[in-house]
Every structure is written in structure tokens, then in C-alpha cells.
Specification:
The complex is a heterodimer. Chain A is an alpha+beta fold. In chain A, the strands form two sheets. In chain A, strands 2-4-5-7-6 form a five-stranded mixed sheet. Chain A contains ten helices and seven strands. Chain A starts with a helix and ends with a helix. Chain B is globular, with a radius of gyration of 21 Å. In chain B, a hairpin with a 5-residue loop joins β4 and β5. By secondary structure, chain B is an alpha+beta fold. The longest helix of chain B has 24 residues. Chain B contains six helices and ten strands. Classes of the chains: A alpha+beta, B alpha+beta. The interface between A and B is medium-sized, with 21 and 21 residues.
Chain lengths: 401, 218
């Protein structure tokens, strides 16, 4: 038998014994008072007095007789109480003892059942912790009970979610970092020969102009054409560079809702055919962010929406709100939306729905990197119409503690 | 032939004597008498009334009942039981004893006796009819039991009502803080406890083994 059970039984026995002893003292006193011989003697004296009074004052004999009968009745009851007092005490004791025993027994049974349940839940909790230590996702295994174990379970679930979220962020960051490194090398490898080629072409065309004065016009045209292509290559490497050399954010506390509202006002006419609309969200939306990078992110998203609208008038809605320890913002357009075929790799570099030569497919990767560098994330969320991107920030007050 | 056994829960000495089978005087036993007309009577000894506890009980003002039960065998050797009851109440105002005898045929006879000495005298001389005609065998052995019950059913019911009312009223007052009595959940349980505890029960018992004697004619 476990020590806990023995302790419980001992506690019950001690409680019952203590209660029985206490009540015995109490009931002896109460019954003793009821059947007290001095009380009875006093009542008998009162009877005798009534009789004496009746004899000395016969005119009021009926009154004294009535009083006598009242006292006699009381005396009779006292006599019966003194005869049955011990039995009455025992019955009261027994009943109360049974009631107390019932209460204690019920409490003990409930305690034992609860203890067994708690043990089972602790086993589940331990399994959750083991799963967490193995890096596996943990769903709250202990239902919705809000007791201590339930709260610990929810904390484990919350920790598991946070770890999972961080892990995904780290994977995305590592993935984008490797792409950034590749882009940086490509830019470098292209930019160096590109500069040399430009200089050699200029020198060649200059020499050709001296040798063939009659062909000046043709040579100028060829030069313009070659320089245009070289300029395209330079722009290509510049895009690479901007992705590869993305600066780390300089975080300052800002109200995201206010920022979105300002952005919608400032860039209201930046995209012909795209109307920007800022909507009121809810709660404090303070976040730690780099305004320049965030502006770049919003411009990228707005560019995509404007290009996807294909000449039609479109609407881009911006909305920020507080949700728990996070601040969220949706950037939603009413365009054709994202094709299902590219959704899974939407944020990977060089993923684009445009024709070859119309874009590098780096814009959303840059946006993703910016959000990850802010300690948040960028996701595509499902919507009835158009494309909706959700920006997730840790709330500013949570970051500051 | 006859022996007297006195049992009393509180009187340890009497119990000891009974256990040891202390012999009682020959005259201190009941006489079961078979009359020529077929009736059977019993004449009780004075000893049950002379003990201190009985005297105190008789003077209490309660209606003390002496329940008499005889067991014997008839001519066909079947067990037969006969009984009677004597109720004695000391009237505190008039200072006399009101005695009622309910004999074996159910007939009730009351009388007033003015003193304890006369009561004992009446008790030890008045024959009580157990049955007529007698079902008991002549000269057969008879077991006689006399039990003293300290109060009557009416007094029992009155005390139960009074105590239940007092406790309920006080608990109601305590609960409501007012004088008005209202039913409490515990009242039923309390009534049961009171009803079980305040209950008539013999507090003294006397037992004799005697033989049926032939009685002289009236």
C-alpha cells in the first residue's frame, strides 16, 4: 500500500476519532444540562410552592393549579429526557459521525479519483515533454481543463508552436541566405566582365570610327544597341545585388496601423489603376520595425498587385490589428490571385508568374527576408478573391517586456 | 423451587446477585393461582416495589407501567402466554397514586391509593386476573417476567413533540435570525433520531420460575 494511501487513512481515522471525542464532550454537556438534577429539583420546589400558594390563597387555587400542571409537564419531559438522554446522545453522535464519515469518505474517494486522473495526465504531460525534446510537434493532450496541469500542457503546446514557428523561420532564413550568397556571387561574376566588356566595346568602336569614317552612323547605332543590352545586364546584376546585399533592419517602435495609413496616403497615385485603401483594425499595433524596409516591402507587394491587374482598375486594402502577442497586417488586392501551381514556392527566389524577361522573381523573396529579419513572417493566406499577404510581427510591447 | 432473578442495568450489585443466583425469601415470589372456576390469577410479591430505584421512579410523576408476562404449558404441552399490565402514576398535586390494572382479559380497573405503604400492601395482596378459563396445566411450571417501563406512550409522544419543536424552533431562529419557524432540511432526520432515542423501554426486569397453585374458592 502506498504511503499516500496510508496517510489518507490515518488522517480520516484521526479526524473521525477527534470529532467523536469532541462531540461526546459536547453532547454530554447538552444532555447533562437538559437532565440536570438541580433543574429538576428546582422544578419540584416550584411544584411545592404552587401547592403551598394554592393552600394559602384558595381564591386563586385554579391559577396555581394551572401553573402547577405546566411545571409538572415540563418536569415530566425532563424526567423522560434524563431517562433517555444517553440513548439520544448516542443516536445524535452516531448520526453526525456517519454524516462526517460520509463526507470524509466522499472527499477521499473524489481525492483518490482525482489523484489517479492527475497521475495519468502527468504521464501524458511527460510524453508531451519527451516529444518536445525530440523536436516533434505537440498538440495539447489534456483537453481544455484550466487547472495547473492543464495550464502547463497549454504552455508546452504554446512552446512547441513557438519552436516550430522559429524552426520554420530559421529554415526560410537559411534558404534565403543561401540564395542571397548565390546571387551575390552571380552579381560579382557578371559585373566584373560586364565592366571590362563595356570598356572594350567602347575602345573597339572608337578605333573602328577612325578606320571607317563613312560608317559613323552605323557604328553609332551598333554602339547604342550594344550599350542597351549591356545596360540590361547591369540592371540584372543590380537586382541580384539588391537581393544579396539586403541590409539588416534598424528597428524602432512604430504604430503599424498609422504607418499603413500614411503609406496609403503617400503612395495614393504611385500606381495608375491601383487604388490604395487603409482600413481601421483594432487594439494597439505598436511594432519594432524599419520604416524604409517596410516601405520597400509594401512597394513590392503593390507592384505585384498593379502588374497582376493587367490594366484594369484594382484595389489594394491595407489593415493592421492586434491579436494576442502579435500584430498582424493584411495586404489584400482584388486581382486574379496567385495560381495554385506556384503557391508552395511563392517566396523562393526566381519564382514568378510573368513572362521571361519581365521580372526576376525576387520581389516576394525580398519581402519574406525583410519580415524574417523583423522577427516576424510573411505568408499567403487564403481569400475569396485576389491575393492576400499577411505580415506577422511580434508586438512591440512584448519585445520590450 | 422458586428463584428470583433481578436484573438492572444500572444496579451492579443487583446484577451480581442475580448472576450468583442469590436465593430470595420464599415469600418474595409471585403466586400463580388457579381458581376452581377455571380462572388463573397472579399475586405479585412486594419486592419489585420496594427497591430504591422503583420508589424514586414511582415518585417521579411519570406513569410507570409494570408489564407482566407469564409463560407456561397447557394440558397438550403447548406453550401458552398470558399477560397483564399495571400502570401507576403518582399524582403530584393530590399526593396519591392512581393505579390502573389491565388484566389478561383486557378489562381495565382504576383505583386511587393514598400512600406508598398502601400501594405496596395493595400490590402484594391484590390478585390480577391473567385469564379465564385458565389454559395452563395444573401444578405446571410457569415463567413469570415483570418489566418496569418508566413512562407511558402518551408521555413519550408528548416529549418527542416538545423536543422536536424546541430544537426545530431554535434551529430555525438561528438560521433566519427571527422567531418565525420554517421547515429545515434537517428536521426530518432530527425527528427520526428523537423518535428512535426517546422510546419506551423496560429499565428493570424481574423473573421468577414458579408453579401453578390451586387457589381457595372466593
Amino acid at each position: 500500500m502506498k504511503t499516500r494511501t496510508i496517510s489518507l487513512i490515518l488522517a480520516v481515522v484521526v479526524t473521525l476519532t477527534g470529532f467523536a471525542w469532541f462531540f461526546r464532550q459536547l453532547s454530554f454537556v447538552s444532555v447533562g444540562l437538559a437532565a440536570n438534577s438541580e433543574v429538576q429539583a428546582a422544578l419540584r420546589r416550584s411544584l411545592s410552592d404552587q401547592k403551598s400558594l394554592a393552600r394559602s390563597d384558595p381564591s386563586h387555587a385554579a391559577v396555581y393549579r394551572q401553573r402547577f400542571e405546566e411545571v409538572r409537564l415540563l418536569l415530566t419531559r425532563m424526567e423522560i429526557l434524563s431517562l433517555t438522554g444517553r440513548k439520544l446522545t448516542s443516536a445524535l453522535e452516531g448520526t453526525l459521525l456517519a454524516l462526517v464519515a460520509l463526507v470524509i469518505a466522499s472527499g477521499s474517494i473524489i481525492y483518490l479519483i482525482e489523484h489517479r486522473r492527475r497521475e495519468q495526465r502527468l504521464v501524458q504531460l511527460r510524453e508531451s515533454l519527451m516529444a518536445l525534446s525530440r523536436g516533434e510537434p505537440v498538440a495539447s493532450p489534456l483537453g481544455k481543463r484550466r487547472d495547473l496541469i492543464g495550464r502547463i500542457s497549454l504552455m508546452i503546446e504554446s512552446t512547441s508552436n513557438a519552436i516550430d514557428r522559429d524552426r520554420r523561420r530559421m529554415r526560410s532564413l537559411e534558404h534565403l541566405s543561401s540564395w542571397q550568397e548565390a546571387a551575390r556571387r552571380h552579381a560579382h561574376e557578371i559585373r566584373t566582365p560586364l565592366t571590362a566588356a563595356r570598356m572594350e566595346v567602347a575602345r573597339l568602336l572608337s578605333w573602328a570610327g577612325q578606320q571607317l569614317p563613312a560608317e559613323q552612323a552605323a557604328l553609332a547605332s551598333a554602339q547604342a544597341s550594344i550599350f542597351e543590352e549591356l545596360e540590361r545586364l547591369r540592371a540584372f546584376t543590380t537586382a541580384f545585388t539588391s537581393f544579396a546585399m539586403l541590409s539588416p533592419p534598424r528597428l524602432v517602435p512604430l504604430d503599424l496601423a498609422r504607418f499603413l495609413e500614411d503609406f496609403a496616403g503617400t503612395f495614393a497615385s504611385a500606381w495608375p489603376g491601383l487604388r490604395l485603401e487603409s482600413q481601421q483594425g483594432g487594439g494597439r499595433c505598436e511594432v519594432m520595425m524599419d520604416a524604409n524596409l517596410m516601405r520597400q516591402l509594401l512597394v513590392n507587394l503593390a507592384n505585384n498587385s498593379a502588374q497582376a491587374s493587367d490594366g484594369r482598375t484594382g484595389l489594394l486594402r491595407l489593415r493592421a490589428w492586434r491579436e494576442g502577442k502579435q500584430v498582424l497586417a493584411d495586404v489584400a488586392d482584388d486581382g486574379p490571385g496567385i495560381p495554385a501551381s506556384v503557391r508552395d514556392r511563392l517566396f523562393e527566389p526566381y519564382t514568378t508568374t510573368r513572362q521571361i524577361g519581365e521580372g526576376m522573381g525576387l520581389g516576394l523573396s525580398i519581402c519574406k527576408k525583410i519580415m524574417l529579419d523583423h522577427g516576424g513572417d510573411l505568408d499567403l493566406v487564403s481569400s475569396e478573391r485576389g491575393a492576400t499577404f499577411r505580415l506577422t510581427f511580434p508586438a512591440g510591447d512584448e519585445l520590450r517586456g | 423451587m422458586a428463584s428470583t432473578q433481578v436484573t438492572c442495568r444500572s444496579a451492579a450489585i443487583a446484577c451480581l446477585l442475580a448472576v450468583l443466583g442469590a436465593a430470595a425469601p420464599r415469600g418474595d415470589v409471585p403466586h400463580v393461582l388457579a381458581r376452581p372456576d377455571g380462572a388463573i390469577l397472579i399475586r405479585l410479591p412486594a419486592s419489585p416495589l420496594t427497591g430504591d430505584r422503583v420508589k424514586t421512579q414511582l415518585r417521579s410523576g411519570l406513569t410507570t407501567a409494570f408489564v407482566l408476562l407469564t409463560k407456561g404449558r397447557d394440558s397438550e404441552d403447548h406453550e401458552r402466554k398470558l399477560g397483564a399490565r399495571v400502570e401507576i402514576r403518582y399524582e403530584l398535586w393530590d399526593e396519591n397514586y392512581i393505579v390502573a390494572v389491565i388484566d389478561g382479559t383486557g378489562r381495565r380497573e382504576s383505583r386511587t391509593i393514598d400512600s406508598y405503604a398502601h400501594l405496596v400492601d395493595w400490590w402484594s395482596h391484590a390478585p390480577i386476573l391473567l385469564g379465564a378459563p385458565s389454559p395452563l396445566r395444573q401444578s405446571g411450571a410457569v415463567a413469570v417476567t415483570l418489566e418496569m417501563v418508566p413512562f407511558s406512550p402518551e408521555e413519550e409522544a408528548d416529549t418527542q413533540r416538545w423536543l422536536a419543536h424546541s430544537l426545530n424552533t431554535s434551529s430555525s431562529r438561528a438560521a433566519s435570525g427571527q422567531g418565525a419557524a420554517s421547515p429545515q432540511p434537517s428536521e426530518g432526520l432530527l425527528d427520526i433520531i428523537i423518535g428512535t432515542a426517546i422510546h419506551r423501554q423496560a429499565i428493570l426486569s424481574f423473573h421468577w420460575d414458579v408453579r401453578v397453585e390451586a387457589s381457595p374458592p372466593k
